[in-house]
Amino acid sequence: MPLVIGLTGGIASGKSTVANLFAEQFGIDIVDADIVARQVVEKGTPGLAAIRDHFGAAVLNPDATLNRAALRERIFSNENEKMWLNNLLHPLIREKMTQDLRQVHSPYALLVVPLLVENQLQSMADRILVVDVDQATQIQRTMARDEVSEQQVRAILASQASREQRLACADDVIKNDAKNQKLLPQITELHQKYLAISRTNL
């Protein structure tokens, strides 16, 4: 298993931008929890079969793929159903992420998990890298990107770990506040650091 860097950050912090720069500039392999979460409920998977058995065929599209809107409706106002779904999906996602990390060919891997702190997945990574941004910037970026109200963004922020909680778990931090924050120098420095650590881990 390679050195695993757990990359996390709040909404609109720039996690994807940072991960893509590591991949594009240095050829680092990425395992993305959001992608894995979709893969474990693809057509023909045990995950999707369990969801269909529990919620019924109404949560499927005509082509037998998952109807995410219908599923969201089922769990939205029902805490027990939401818990059932999380109890099903979290172990499947974790197992698939572990499998994917074993396939990595780069000297270290980025494990991108937006809710790393919230779901207490720190143990899956050797180091935690937090993309840090102030709340005002998060609100501004999310409103512009998702065309949602400030109230909605604040509700999302309230449901996530606080900036302080995230930073308390961080081994490394990338600052991404300013509009034209220079990300590449920060990423280059960390890349050199991770290469050095991965060599000592051999």
Automatic annotation (TrEMBL):
PROSITE patterns: DPCK (PS51219). Pathway: Cofactor biosynthesis; coenzyme A biosynthesis; CoA from (R)-pantothenate: step 5/5. ATP binds at residues 12-17. Its EC number is 2.7.1.24. Keywords: ATP-binding, Coenzyme A biosynthesis, Cytoplasm, Kinase, Nucleotide-binding, Transferase. It catalyses: 3'-dephospho-CoA + ATP = ADP + CoA + H(+). Signal peptide: none annotated. It is found in: Cytoplasm. InterPro entries: Depp_CoAkinase. GO terms for molecular function: ATP binding; dephospho-CoA kinase activity. GO terms for biological process: coenzyme A biosynthetic process. GO terms for cellular component: cytoplasm. CDD domains: DPCK (cd02022). Catalyzes the phosphorylation of the 3'-hydroxyl group of dephosphocoenzyme A to form coenzyme A. HAMAP family: Dephospho_CoA_kinase. Belongs to the CoaE family. This is Dephospho-CoA kinase. It comes from Vibrio ostreae.
